[in-house]
Amino acid sequence: MEDINASIGFDKKLWRQDIQGSLAHAAMLGKVGVISAEDVVSISDGLKSIAAEIEAGGFPFTTALEDIHMNIEARLTERIGEAGKRLHTGRSRNDQVATDFRLWVRDAIDGIAIQITGLMRALAERAAAHAADPMPGFTHLQTAQPVTFGHHLLAYVEMLDRDRGRLADARRRLNVSPLGAAALAGTSFPIDRAMTAATLGFDRPAANSLDAVSDRDFALEFLSAAAIGAMHLSRFAEEIVIWCSAPYRFIRLSDAFTTGSSIMPQKRNPDAAELVRAKTGRMTGALVALLTVMKGLPLAYAKDMQEDKEPVFDSAESWALSLAATTGMVCDMTPDIARMRKFAGSGFATATDLADWLVRVLKLPFRSAHHITGTLVGIAEKKGIDLAGLTLAEMREVEPGITAEVFSVLTVDASVASRTSLGGTAPANVAREAAGWLAVLA
Ligand code: ARG
To answer: What is the pLDDT of residue 261?
Structure first.
């Protein structure tokens, strides 16, 4: 029973929040006259000395006392006697754990949001530096049209901004206080829930005591934001893995973020990126795990909910680690601009520019222009050359209206420079966007 019942092995992580919650609760009990002012002082002093003891690593955690709440409360009574036994008046471990866990998740949200902002800044700085450097843009991982490296990096800044938004949104709904809901029905003591809510930085007390002790939406919303955030980081990690591979060599990572092979001396394995890519698995698993725990639970508290913590702790740690590693790689990577530029122009990447020129200058309908361009691509492909390698005569055989002016749109620089539509990859757009982000993120 002790083995399956105890949560102290993992919920000791909540010790700061547990003490914070108990300090608020004790002060409130004193204020409304449920306990004496002297008791408040000795409880507060006792809790603070326990905090110091835990901090110093000397606290005697025991599974016999099940969880962090009972471990701390028992220790308090050991230290201060009778007053310690009055702390639990007008509350239950059900509202206590719900409060502690909310406080922990709120801290995690705030920490992760700062890390995301740091990664956004690192990406925006590199984007500003490479606003005009072309690289191949892909769809289906097939060369599609040239884009700039800066534009590509800023796409991730947009994703990360949504991740921050999801956290901010989750935090708003999280920030109500379950404390004082007691076991499930409220309490007969004249407690002041608004006071404890304010002390703990919550916006208000939760309105329904049954909901207050059994709601874990805040944990699920955090896990869901984490799963989506991890999915974003895994997409970027996968691009790093691809860009580092020998046939691509778009970027190089230093020894700081790669490992060597014990047998193949030429290897620089992007292990950090691969692990960021892989963390998505456990983080998605954590969301599914808690959704499955909560599904079908009748009101109010049930011990099933003790299983809410490990997935959240693990996901928060994985997210923090992945963000740190990704930010490190963004600062570390050395892009091979010349090589990216070279491949930006290969694979008939400017075929769309040719088609657009036929529409703009010769006033052909787009479908006809698409067909003519396809024919020209076929001819160039057969000859093993790029579109710009075709002679004017060869082009005119397919479409007599074509003039030498067409060659000016077939270069990579002309292609990216022409994409001036809102959100497009034109260097001027990218430079402006990067500067805008850097101003916001400063
Ligand atoms: N360790 C428990 C948890 O994490 C604390 C609440 C226990 N409540 C109870 N009525 N047994 O959920």
So the answer is: 78
